[in-house]
Design goal:
It is a single chain. With 146 residues, this protein is an alpha/beta fold. The chain has helices spanning 10-26, 61-67, 71-86, 94-106, 110-123, 130-145; strands spanning 3-5, 34-38, 50-53, 56-59. Strands 1-2-4-3 form a 4-stranded mixed beta sheet. Helix 1 (10-26) links the parallel strand 1 (3-5) and strand 2 (34-38). Helix 1 (10-26) packs across helix 3 (71-86), helix 3 (71-86) packs across helix 5 and helix 5 (110-123) packs antiparallel against helix 6 (130-145). The radius of gyration is 14 Å and the shape is globular.
């Protein structure tokens, strides 16, 4: 797998440098390139922090900053989005989110994923997703205990 930082986003460059080889090992079954692009405020109608379409991960640096995510929390969130791609999950079902969170956990970023989700919850930006986000936290906490 090749991770391509097509918009030269500094945080993505750091993620690839620190975790690129491990992602390739953990997801060795996946052989397509994954592209990272900026999500501009003009394109970001819903105020998304990150998302993916096909094999492209989009990141809104503005929204990431407004939530106050730290670099490790951003790394965990990037891993989560990669997890959706490599595990072929679609939609907002809890099992799809758990599978995507598994990649962050496999990179040792489970506690950072929890704190990122907590910041998203605290922002009250996505009230319709509260139970889903809480379910993800419980899943990650249980993984850490087990």
């Amino acid at each position: 797998m090749k991770l391509i930082n097509s918009d030269n986003i500094p945080i993505v460059a750091s993620f690839i440098r620190l975790y690129g080889d491990v992602v390739s090992e953990v997801a060795s079954h996946y052989d397509k390139p994954i592209i990272f692009r900026r999500l501009s405020s003009k394109e970001n109608e819903y105020g998304d922090i990150m998302g993916r379409i096909g094999t492209t991960v989009y990141i809104s640096e503005e929204e990431v900053g407004s939530i106050g995510l730290t670099y490790p929390e951003i790394f965990a969130s990037l891993a989560h989005e990669i997890g959706h791609i490599v595990y072929h999950t679609h939609g907002w079902q809890l099992d799809c989110e758990h599978r995507a969170d598994m990649l962050a956990a496999q990179l040792g970023l489970d506690s950072q994923m929890i704190s990122a989700i907590e910041k998203i919850l605290d922002s009250r930006r996505f009230p319709n997703l509260t139970s889903l986000l809480v379910g993800r936290i419980h899943f990650l906490q249980n993984m850490m205990r087990g």
